[in-house]
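Sanity check. The docking grid for pyridoxal-5'-phosphate depends on where the pocket ends up, so I'm generating a full predicted complex first rather than guessing from homology. Inputs follow.
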Amino acid sequence: MQSNPLDPAAIVAPAAAQKPVRYNTAAIQQLDAAHYLHPFTDPKDLAARGARVMVRGEGIYVWDSEGRRLLDGMAGLWCVNVGYGRKRIADAVYAQMMQLHFYNSFFQTTNVPAVELAALLVEISPPQFNHVFYTGSGSEGNDTVVRMVRRYWDLQGCKQRHVIISRHNAYHGSTMAGASLSGMAAMHEQGGLPIPGIVHIGQPYYLEGGKGKTPEQFGLEAASWLEDKILEIGPDQVAAFIGEPVQGAGGVIIPPPTYWPEIQRICDKYGILLVADEVICGFGRLGAWFGSERMGIRPDLMTFAKGVTSGYIPLGGVLVGDRVADALIQDGGEFNHGFTYSGHPVACAAALENIRIIREEKLVEQVRDDTGPYLKQEFEALVAHPLVGSADACGFVAGLNLVRAKGETVFDAVPFAPELGVGMICRGHMFDNGMIMRAVGDRMIIAPPLIMTRAQIDEMVALIGSCLDQTLADLQARNLL
Ligand SMILES: *Cc1c(COP(=O)(O)O)cnc(C)c1O
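Predicted complex below; grid placement will be based on this.
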């Protein structure tokens, strides 16, 4: 009964009524290439390869349309904190959809899940946070930050204080403001970015700039670049500094312990607002509810998304500290900003159930006290592998650097030529062997679901090790070593 392969009805093979569902992978790939423009993807390259079709998830695993199981070391895209297949969240979403699937928050109206979630977010966040602004995504959250920070300074009578300082190799999203705050050259090249009033300083990447220094010395030095930039621009022009507690998409860049406290000191000294982009680090990923707590800082604003719903329904927002909230509420009048789906009741219902799960299963404490330190120990031991120049972890994010040859110290390792694409070769071996790991250049990174057990960490690290062996053999066979 094979019909036109471009007919969507042909996607699921006729045996669909039986278990297990069988998919016509080639037909899906063909339709995908014909009509679906993927984010951050070269469409011609993808069409030549054919997209891998994901069809199911359970716990820490996902399955593709060919029935292959993959251990999801990236928790979807840094977001599936409570794992796949949570019926409780699906039930909460269903119930809310039947009760009231949508109503806006514009017309002096509200809805019960949005209110409950706001109160819960305030409860689990540091004490300076008593208000929430909702968006649909992390990018919109950071757009909101730009609007709110500038509005705050306007209300202080300091309209000229509008410059926001971010960092090279930061990721803050892909809207115009999000991409501008991001420090990715490849994004700025396309579309005339950054928008005015957003500047960047260097990142606190010890391997990049720390040679001859202790991590502590380098952390202070990297923070001092903020003060240099403030003085260059003029302190009375600077509105805020924004950073991810640990940079995610930039390659899991874990700053030295001295970095963030010094950043806090400098922000305090010049009275500039400190914004933590918690889109990845929030909701337990670093073994604290928010990464800021782990880094010992007191931000004025925190952007969240991803883990707030574990990806069950899109939701983002900004936790607004009292300093900014008081100004907006007391003196601000109407803030001319918002989204149709700000406070979407179904998304908020998903977040509520997700956070309840994180609480009841003590996932934050588990990552902080047990599985986080264990992951660090086991993952960092991969440095014994001949391809691994260095490996580090913080909570449930980790990364390792593939090198051509090791040196006396991590700074003397010999990298591969970037054009060889060794990270992507390694990623291919991982995927082919049932392990999802992301490549950022030649740095291989993970951010697994927080529910992962010690036994599953053992399974994952063993799998990574054997995939590294295969990558090594492959590189030798191709004479790339
Ligand atoms: C993913 C991400 C964003 C953007 O979130 P979207 O929901 O994709 O818009 C912003 N900041 C950080 C740190 C992120 O990791």
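Relevant for the grid: Residues 292 and 395 are 13 Å apart (CA to CA).
Also worth noting: The chain has two domains: 52-82+363-477, 88-360.
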